[in-house]
Amino acid sequence: MADKAFKYVILGGGVAAGYAAREFANQGVNLGELAIISKETVAPYERPALSKAYLFPEGTARLPGFHVCVGSGGERLLPEWYTEKGISLILNTEVVKADLASKTLISATGETFKYQILIIATGSTVIRLSDFGVKGADATNIFYLREIDDADKLVEAIKAKKNGKALVVGGGYIGLELSAALKINNIDVSMVYPEPWCMPRLFTADLASFYESYYANKGIKIIKGTVATGFGTNEDMEVMDVKLKDGRVMEADIVVVGVGGRPMTKLFKGQIEEEKGGIKTDGFFKTSVPDVYAVGDVATFPMKLYDEMRRVEHVDHARKSAEQAVKAIFAREQGNSIDEYDYLPYFYSRAFDLSWQFYGDNVGETVFFGDGSPTSPNHKFGSYWIKDGKVVGAFLEGGTPEENKAIAKVARVQPPALSLDLLATEGLTFACKI
Ligand code: FAD
């Protein structure tokens, strides 16, 4: 097989790859210079849709509806767009070997790709229960959700197990979004997680208390402080029940696991500098290897605002880091310079009629504000995080676009917090004044 050679190769065909491709086009990449190599079978899409409208019985999202860049209000890049721009979209192709010294990638079928400049955008993979040696974790109808094929399998199971029972393992945002989607499909849902409350890496006890009560009111059973230790199966190897560490046994026709991800860096082990589990980059997403960039979930980059190296597994950063890397590549070629990446962390989630946004850093003391009653007709409440006398993070449920902008500004400006009591009383008004 003849080698294929490109000036630029993006390895991975997810969110970062799609936004990078758009930036390449904006920068005037020439026909034939850029290739995207992806093991997925479809052009880059907005991955967050998979745990939301993709699973809904009504108003269902399907491709081509959510190809990038619609998630941020941009143009929808259909496969034809890549053809028009002369960008090779090499799908269904898993790269199994990367030799950064000879600038070569080799696929599972033995194809060889040469590049001058590489952007690593391989994202994350899910952590599996079999990684912890949980018994029976290879039974059918135990699902993970990362790529569209995973979502298709889950949709099939939801149809096949109409009015059945599901157990969701994990209380992070994937667990919360999937529990809601399953419930909307009339499945009887239980959630199990070891922590004292859901989304413990972000939510305060006050915030979590709202979401847990809201879910309970929707009929979702929440079991905390324990973990799944084994699965019982029928003669077809389909999951039938889940054994919990506390001795309980839960019936389940479907199990969905959302216990976190791991950056896909293994192809590059020993060839590139890593930090905090990701590929170390500078503020232009350049790695320790010349002509190699890393963006999105895999990059550990300098978070200028906090003067610290961080890795971020969220869609907004995937989009922005990709754009920054491509701008940096073109600026370098033209002998220009651009500003270093100056990222304000931003995460969001949506489930049922709820929608929250978080900006900044969730460190220090916290102040809850607003109406956190799960039964009140409109939910508007939030939290501020205060460190060294400054407000460094802000969370808001049910905000309008203007209110969300206001909390983003607070997190960026970091205004002083004169008194925590005053912050609690002022609530959103504090943010809207900044
Ligand atoms: P990805 O989008 O994961 O893309 C990586 C790509 O690389 C994939 O196409 C993969 O197939 C490909 N790849 C990997 N290895 C190879 C290889 N060896 N050869 C070829 N191709 C390869 N974030 C939010 O902020 N809000 C949300 O609501 C939200 N919801 C989410 C819901 C789900 C179900 C998931 C899975 C994630 C969600 N995220 C959300 C996180 C967000 O989607 C990711 O942070 C983002 O997709 C990261 O972009 P990326 O390009 O780095 O990686």
UniProtKB/TrEMBL annotation:
Domain FAD/NAD(P)-binding: 6-322
Reaction catalyzed: 2 monodehydro-L-ascorbate radical + NADH + H(+) = 2 L-ascorbate + NAD(+)
Pfam families: MDHAR3-like_C, Pyr_redox_2
Species of provenance: Fraxinus pennsylvanica
Family affiliation: Belongs to the FAD-dependent oxidoreductase family.
Protein's name in the database: monodehydroascorbate reductase (NADH)
A molecular-function term among this protein's GO annotations: monodehydroascorbate reductase (NADH) activity
Keyword Flavoprotein applies: yes
GO cellular component: cytoplasm
EC number(s) on file: 1.6.5.4
Record-linked InterPro entries: FAD-oxidoreductase/Apoptosis (IPR050446), FAD/NAD-bd_sf (IPR036188), FAD/NAD-binding_dom (IPR023753), FAD/NAD-linked_Rdtase_dimer_sf (IPR016156), MDHAR3-like_C (IPR048618)
Cofactors: FAD
Enzyme class: oxidoreductase
